[in-house]
Amino acid sequence: EVQLVESGGGLVQAGGSLRLSCAASGFTFDDYAIGWFRQAPGKEREGVSCISDTDGSTYYPDSLKGRFTISIDNAKNTVYLQMDSLKPEDTAVYYCNAALTNSFGPTYIYWGQGTRVTVSS
Question: pLDDT per residue over 24-43, tens digit each?
C-alpha cells in the first residue's frame, strides 16, 4: 500500500522549533522530488520547500530561507522539515508530497493527510 504519513506537528510558542517528519511506505522517496506545502485557514495552499531527486538541490520561498530546512534520510525513507524561529503566521496544516517531474513541470503523485502546526504569540 502506498502511503505518506506526516507527524511532528503541535503547539509551539513563537520563536520555538519543530521538526516535521514524512514517512513513506510502498514506494521509495529516492525516485521522486519531495515537497512540503502548507495551508492556513482561509488561505491558499503554498509551497514551503522542495528537494530534488536528480541532484539533491533544495528550494525555499525567500520568506522562509534561513528558518526552514528540508532533508531526507533515504535509509529510513523519511523526509524532514526542520522549522526554527517559528512565527504565528507559520500556523497551518503541513503536507508532504512526492512528485514526478519532466519538461512539462511537476506532477504531484502522492500526498499525505497533513500535520497541524500552531504557533502562539
Answer: 999 888 888 999 999 999 99
